[in-house]
Amino acid sequence: MKENVQILPVLPLKNTVLLPELMLPLQVGREASRAAVQAALASEAKELVVVAQRKPDVESPGQDDLYTIGTKAIVRKVSTNRSGALDVLVYGEERVAILRVDFEDGYLKARVNPLETPVDTSLELEALQPVVFELATKAIALAQPQNAQELTRMLAAQDDPIKMAYLLAATFDLEVAKVQQLLEAPTRLDALRLIHGFISHELQVLELRAKIAGEAQSELTKEQKEYVLRRQLKAIQQELGETDSEKGEVEQLRQRLAEADLPDDVRKEAERELNRMEKLPPAAPDYHVLRSYVELILELPWRKSTEDQLDIARAREILDADHYGLKDVKERILEHLGVLKRNPKAKAPILCFVGPPGVGKTSLGQSIARALGRKFERMSLGGLHDEAELRGHRRTYIGAMPGRLIQAVRRAGANNPVLMLDEVDKLGRDFRGDPASALLEVLDPEQNNTFRDNYLDLPFDLSKVLFITTANTLDTIPQPLLDRMEVLRLSGYTEEEKIEIAQKYLIPRQLEETGLTPEQCTITPEALSKIITGYTREAGLRKLERSIGRIARKVTLKFAEGHTDPVTITANDVEELLGPEPYSLEQARKVLPPGVATGLAWTPTGGDVLYIEGTLLPSGKGLTLTGQLGEVMQESARAAQSYIWSHAADFGIDPGIFKETGVHIHVPAGAVPKDGPSAGITAAVALASLYTGTSARSDTAMTGEITLTGMVLPIGGVKEKVLAARRAGIKRVILPKGNQKDLKDLPESVLKEMEFRFVERIEDVLIETIPTLGSRLDLNGNRQGTASQPARNGPLAAEAGNE
Question: What's the whole-model pTM score?
Fold first, then answer.
């Protein structure tokens, strides 16, 4: 041994060994190791000691953790990579014996003594060297066929047996302990013996693999090749002590399953599927299907609920702050809160909001969720045809997924969210199934506590979910489905209500979106009234908000161009900003000729005034109806003619005129389809006026269904129809006696302005609308019912309004 003790920085390695006269690239990340490299670079010789650790998991090794034989090396190149670690290239000079290791100045320092290079010779050495070369040639041809020629030339060029041994150790990437034995070999013969044993073992493994691969090559399919490769990878990982990723994935799922709060039957099914998954190779198609299924089970909130906010005063404040009016809906939500306060286990109601577009049905659902302190999820059912979209697909299908209901609950992360099913009246139906029938179970509190999704195939409790459905009309909803829902109607807003909502909600929101302040832009109530009547024809507020937004953008443009003074939008400015009025409301006709009567109609956008016009056709026959009238409306007109004909003598009409003269009835706005029975009394008044040649009152509008015996039956949409009459300037309305109770839905201001007449028979209608004919009926005593009852600004009006 040379006696030339040096003190050098130490660079410990976890999983490799540096051999003399070889280059080795390293990645240095530990602080002490980085400091050792920097210390070596600061020295003139740039030398340090590279030594392997006995255990790779030790982060701060000491002398006992390091082998006693290492390699003195020169640092050739250093650079910093993206992760902040050092990329170092070192060249091994010679072996050294490590005498002592100390930690100083932030890194390890070692007292080392160089070891002499073995130079022994013997017959055995000369005989063993070509044997090792031949074994190495065969092993290289199997392990690295693409580099076999080059590596063989390099080995042949090595005359020194120990250098050849070092080169072979680096070529075959042997284990750290084996390479360390080679580094510590005292003689060249010992080194060759060690490398001969190592290469012989590697050659046997390579030949066995080649034999297996050759025998199975003709039989292996693509999936089988992947399976074999993964099995080999698994064996290699186990040999190296590395973690099996697939096994780790199953263990992670098993750990999550152990921690999850699941019902017993659900846990049992999840464990069964997890056991199946564990036995499958990751390349199997069912492996990923099972993994997705188990993950769904673990992510569903089987017993996780959000805590309800049962402060009724707070909920009322939130509902009032978000929406104007809608008293009935708000009261129903507060009633449910009161029930929950007394009985936390109460089942959630199934609500259905019905009303025209733009009245706030969808946003009301968000407000309810906020008031209750629950998660909110919305799913649109408009145009949905496939039942599997709701119930999910069976797992036997490729690409199967859970239904949208289970997915919504999964996203909410709680089993009691507010789930809005939007546009339930627009569900489709075709060969793929009937989604409306699939909802029968979901929207039934007696059944949905064990809802089974086709994909999940486990009972999930939906009884705590607050379902809210929305619709524009109930006509297209199947009766069994409608029977399961509590219908709450959201009628259109009056002009006064729209102005109030615009001032409180719409204008501030649009000013904020356009970057204006309330001081910079003001819209007067008169301007809002003109926008509502001339630029929007709707029961809701969407067009109104768009019109306000358009005005706000034009004002913003003025300020962007340098305008500084506040802007006030008056009624005179509206036409300049929005253009000519696209709508003109049907105004009351001042004089009605004989054969014309004023009716009221309900539309999806509110109500409207409907004039029915009739004329006699000399020498004509029968009844002609035009104006795109539906079957029900045509039948009402025929019933009205039959009643007038059968009571012609009472009305002073010559019965012969019905045989000698035809009648043409037309309802203007011919491009708009019309239907329904509520125009029955209007048609009767128009025909009576036509046959008697006397005009009906122009200040009176009417609505009601008639029967062939002259009875007047109640109708729907009273609020919208009365508001339509008010907009048209008509202050007197005739309604069926059965609709008197509906006046409570009207605002007080409307009740004070309008005069209402309630009737039970056609004779009552004729008395109120055709004064001369009414006098004749009174004189003849031909009325068969009670007298019509007025309601205006008096006790009856107040009684009707507060009923």
Answer: 0.59
